[in-house]
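Recall that a protein's primary structure is simply its ordered list of amino acids. Everything else, from secondary elements to tertiary packing, is in principle encoded there. The following example makes that idea concrete.
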Amino acid sequence: MKIVLWLFLIAFVRAGTAADVTPGREIDLSRDAGSHQDYRTEWWYLTGWLQDESGARRGFQVTFFRSRNAGAEGNPSKFAAKQLVFAHAALADPSQGRLLRAERTARAGFDLADAKQSNLNVFIDNWSLRQHGDHLTAQIDAEQFSLQLEISVTQAILLQGDNGYSKKGPQDGAASYYYSLPHLDVKGSIYVKGKLLSVIGEAWFDHEWSNEYVDAQAIGWDWIGINLNDGGALMAFRMRDSNGKPTWAGGTWRTAEVTNVHAPDQVVWSPTRFWRSPRTGVSYPVAWRVRVGARVIELQPLMDDQENDARGSVGVLYWEGAVEALDESGKSIGRGYLELTGYGEPARF
């Protein structure tokens, strides 16, 4: 559930009709890994933990967004921005003290930027996320860092919500089609601090597409995707109103035996520690206790300063970072990513 996309909607996709998001659609990766351009918004989201040869750990994020610009669809010009592509990349390196981040924006076309419909092949210039059978590749060349990663699928697709139909509020229109690929094996290289480092790691991949992701009451959300050490996987989220109270929640916990989909009243988020940004003054709940069904996990960040300030381009501020999951005794049970939106200022939809 990714923040920047909804800001793009305000500027680009108020007009035009779009395909409906309804229960009963069968998600098939042979056709659904690529873009769905009849829907207003879509993203491919890759997050994970990397370890270099010295044992140092870092988090990474590679995200591509597609936005349908219905207002330009009647324009016959090849230069009309009918589909817009956005990308965010970040490296959470504790030795740097703060998040290293970069972003790009382009209209689809002229083989300079696109989100292909036939398979996962989304790119802006030399930034790309592509699928080749059971493998993905990610390439990011930014000013402060670069990523060259090969990613292998190790587990079956994880369908979120009702067989891939994921509600985000009490109204039927607030929903998405949503699947994940947890426990991805990662190997490759990163360039940071003037050094080229070989890395290995584990990642989580999300793909969602929708028309109206949230209802009018929600001003932000909290989300996690966790690769559990026992081979299981956990996704949980909650939507919040202007008073910080949940308007909706959900989650999926997969074990070796069963996959449990949890209703809104079965997912409870409780912050345990806040961090205040020295740059923006915004206070984020970076540590949590999350109850999913009968189980409780604690979340602790790899580092506190994982604030992503994109106000200079798309006008949004959010926290997206690597976290470790602990059980109630303090034992590590997994790693993943936490996303916090709508803090300090609402995420205007």
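Confidence is low (pLDDT under 50) at residues 2-15. The radius of gyration is 19 Å.
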